[in-house]
Amino acid sequence: MRFRKHIGFAMVAILLAGCGGAGDTGGSPEHSAGASDSPRASTVAVPVDKAEAERVARRFLDAANAGDTKGVEATFAENARFDSVGRVYPSRADIMNRFLIPEVLDVGGRYKATGSRWDGDRYVVNYDFKTSGGGGESFSYAFLIQDGLIRDVVGRY
Predict the structure, then answer these.
(1) CA atoms of 126 and 140, how far apart (whole Å)
(2) How many other C-beta atoms can be found within 10 angstroms of the C-beta atom of residue 139?
(3) What SS3 class is residue 107?
(4) What is the Cα–Cα distance from 44 to 6, expressed in whole angstroms?
(5) String of b and e for 61-76 (b: at least 16 CB within 10 Å)?
(6) End-to-end CA distance of the chain, in Å?
(7) Rounded distance between C-alpha atoms, residue 62 and residue 40, angstroms
(8) 45 pLDDT band (50/70/90 cuts)?
(9) What is the pTM of this model?
(10) How far apart are CA 120 and CA 40, in angstroms?
(11) β-pair partners for 153
(12) Is 124 within 8 Å of 143 (Cβ atoms)?
């Protein structure tokens, strides 16, 4: 009986420690030292400047069509993310080096915007795309643009 009692206490202690007992913040940024119980600023929706977002998407298109690697790169935030039909590029460097340079810029790719719309906070642009070698396809990019930079793109072909 005494053995069971010690195991019971040990299990309770383990469960409390693992489940965030009194005083434990669980490492959550919302409850870090000095934080109040109000939502963090980053979880509050930031209004989208639609005109600015449309200009940034246009800058991306113009730079890509001009073969301007630096200009294309300048439209993306350093920690931008690009999901190209499940192929996820988690940074500006990956987006450029593993996707846009080899698959768009190096093949003389040209985007032609064929339509656009807003879907919540994303600016969705439909494109016809052609390479200098004659290959082509149609797809859309759903851009999340904040503070003058592309933060996230979802590409669907």
Answers:
(1) 4
(2) 15
(3) coil
(4) 47
(5) bebbbeeeeeebbebb
(6) 66
(7) 37
(8) low
(9) 0.71
(10) 21
(11) 82, 143
(12) yes
pLDDT greater than 80 at residue 16: no
Tokens of 70: 């630096």
Contact present, 64 and 97 (Cβ < 8 Å): no
- By CB atoms closer than 10 A (0-12, 13-18, 19+), residue 60 is buried
d(C-alpha 143, C-alpha 81), whole Å = 10
Structure tokens given for 64:
């890509």
- Alpha-carbon distance 138 to 148, whole Å? 26
Any idea how long the chain is? 157
* Radius of gyration of the chain measured on its C-alpha atoms: 24
Long-range contacts of 135-139 (CB under 8 A, 24+ apart): 135/107, 138/114
pLDDT reported for residue 39 = 30
Distance CA 140, CA 132 (A): 20
Beta carbons within 10 angstroms of residue 142's beta carbon: 19
